[in-house]
Each structure stands twice: as C-alpha cells, then as structure tokens.
Design brief:
CATH architecture of the largest domain in chain A: 3-Layer(aba) Sandwich
Distance between the termini of chain A: 58 Å
Number of helices of chain A: 8
Number of strands of chain A: 7
Protein name (chains A, B): Recombination protein RecR
CATH class of the largest domain in chain A: Alpha Beta
Family (chains A, B): Belongs to the RecR family.
Function (chains A, B): May play a role in DNA repair. It seems to be involved in an RecBC-independent recombinational process of DNA repair. It may act with RecF and RecO.
Radius of gyration of chain A: 20 Å
Bound molecules: zinc ion
Structural class of chain A: alpha/beta
Pfam family, one (chains A, B): Toprim_4
Oligomer: homodimer
Organism (chains A, B): Fuscibacter oryzae
C-alpha cells in the first residue's frame, strides 16, 4: 500500500476500535479524508477534548469530564437508591430507559481471581460506605444475567447484610446469558419496574 | 442519556462514519474512554495530523500529505502507464495487489449529469495532457464494472483517440456490477494481467 505514513498510522489506530477491522477502518478513514473539513477535523478535535478531560467519577465510577459525574452531581437524583452495574455501558443503557432516578455504582467488572478483580478493585467497600453515608434505602443489582454477574451480586448482597438497606435485583425481562447493553430500552425498563428482593 | 456534552458530541460524530451506527459508535467511544491514554489520545492526534496535512495530489488526484503524492513523486514508477480509477479507494485496492507499477488518474466519480460531474470535474482534459506530456504509452481503465463505470471508460477512450496511446481495461475477474474495493487482491491482480485492449 502506498498511502503516506500518517494515513497508514491512522488506519491502524482506527482498526483497533471494536466493530472495525482493517478493511472497515480503511473505508472509515477514506470517508474522513473526503470530508476532512466538515467531519475529520471536528472529530479529531472532539476526541482530543474528551481524551484530555474524561475521568472516572470518584463517587460512582461513571465516566464523565469532571471528578463528580453529572448524575452524582445532580441533587434531584438523591433518591436513596443505588443501582449497581458492571460497566459504564450498562449505566448508559439504564439511563436510556429513563426509568431509574437514583444514582449508580459502576463495578468495572465482576469478581474474578483470574483477572485480579477482587472486592477492592470493584469498589465494594466504597459502595458499603456510601449506603451508610448517603442514607441509601435500596440497592438495585443490575448486573448481567451471567454466572459471574450473579455471583458478584450475591457477594455484594452479603457485604451489605450488616446494613439495613433493602436489596433488589432486575428481574423479568433480562434473558439468561444476556448482556444489558444489547437489550432494548423497554425490556430494561420493565425489568427495573418488576425488580424483586434478593 | 446522561453522558456529558463532550462525550455525546463525540458519539454523534463517530456515528457519521460508514459502518458505524449510533449503537456501534457508542461502543467504540466507550472502548476509547477506557483506553484514553493508550488509544484515544494517539488516535485523536493522528486524526488531527491527517486532517491538517491531507490534500489531493495535483497530478493524479490521490490523497496524500503533500501536493504530489508518493506514487507520483516516485521516479521508479514512471513506467509510461496510467491506471484510471474512479476513487481513491480503488487506487488503494490496486496498490494492495502490488501488480501495477505505473501511476494513476483518480476520476473522483463517473460522468453524471445528475451529480454535476462532467469531463472537467473528473479531470479528463488533465489526463489527456498527461498522456502527451509524460510520454504515456498505455492507459489502463480500472473502472468499476458498472454501467456508469463503463460509460465513463468509453468516454475517456474517445477523448484519447487523437493520441497514439494504447488503451486497455481490466478484463476477466471483475464480476458484473462488482466494485473494485470489495474484491480480493488476487482477483484484481489477475484482471490486471489479463487486461484487454478497449
Ligand atoms: Zn458519579
Ligand atoms: Zn499523485
């Protein structure tokens, strides 16, 4: 291939995005090259801005552009409910339903000795402290309906037994083995409304 | 959705890339957010560099980062052959085969009254001048095997009848209705070797 080095380097980086292989990365870069003023320059600028400013919320683990994410910073969301999710993608999926008005705890994974993910890595002690400090009355487990997700949910429920908080989990609507981020918004909303005590 | 404004803006721009819809753009941005140091910042930088430096080659229409693209600037490629392609993607596809050692003329489309693409927009007078000025002995039509592609190839052949240049076209291997950029490299190479006079 006889592209100039800079264009090759861009294609190689684009190919590392999920859902883009070498061929689709090439097509994407070509589309950008043809619209370098209207699309490529603004996209590069937007990406640089986010890369510079993005950070994990110190309270919940959501990704935003401030130390406290917009959800944690919003006083209208202090509803006494914390929704526990595995990943920021799951938080986004919950938010798209508009069905949940509380705050979140993003684990960043599930318990896994293999991946070196223990309670500390998932922020579970921090979650337990929040339950006491923020006067939380309900913790809603919105973990994936996988073995790892449910094992982690039960571990968290055990860690919270010394508090008086009510613990529930998303119930009907989440298919076995399914992942939240792939579900339609209506299904997630229904599962939230039909949540059951753990 | 409760992402911060900058992240939303980035997702919207990413969703305008070919092959990425709103959902896959979100997933791509999330993957970038999780690797903002190792991937997002370098990608933003690479994209900004290319957006700033990319330009159309004044000789052939290829996109590079200089006024003359690497292919036109390479003295080893002055073989007396010009390969005419519709699009930069097709030039890249030809280059991946490694089968062609000459230079290119990128039309940037096919003749289309509807799209306002006439001979001038496709640089056909410039191609005719190059044939004389560069001592070209063969013009190889590597246009898509579509009606528009073949109509344009014949128009170019007519425009070149006053020169003595030999005109050929990619022959076997290009399926009817097929587009070069989707073909495997071997097929394109075979079609090049088996080119026939037009
Ligand atoms: Zn937060
Ligand atoms: Zn050139």
């Amino acid at each position: 291939m006889d592209n100039t080095r800079e264009i090759e380097a861009l294609i190689e980086l684009m190919a590392r995005l999920p859902g883009l292989g070498p061929r689709s990365a090439r097509r994407a870069v070509l589309a950008l090259l043809k619209r370098r003023g209207q699309l490529m320059a603004p996209l590069a600028q937007a990406m640089a801005t986010v890369a510079l400013n993005a950070r994990d919320c110190t309270v919940c683990g959501n990704i935003g552009t401030a130390d406290i994410c917009p959800i944690c910073a919003d006083p209208d969301r202090a509803t006494g409910e914390i929704c526990v999710v595995e990943d920021v993608a799951d938080l986004w999926a919950m938010e798209r339903t508009g069905a949940f008005k509380g705050r979140y705890h993003v684990l960043g994974g599930t318990l896994s000795a293999l991946d070196g993910l223990g309670p500390d890595e998932l922020g579970i002690p921090r979650l337990v402290r929040r339950v006491a400090d923020e006067g939380i009355c309900e913790v809603i487990m919105a973990l994936n309906a996988t073995v790892d997700g449910q094992t982690t949910a039960h571990y968290i429920a055990d860690a919270l037994t010394e508090t008086t908080v009510q613990i529930s989990s998303l119930a009907q609507g989440v298919p076995i083995g399914g992942e939240l981020d792939y579900l339609d918004d209506g299904t997630i909303g229904a599962a939230l409304r039909a949540r059951r005590r753990l």
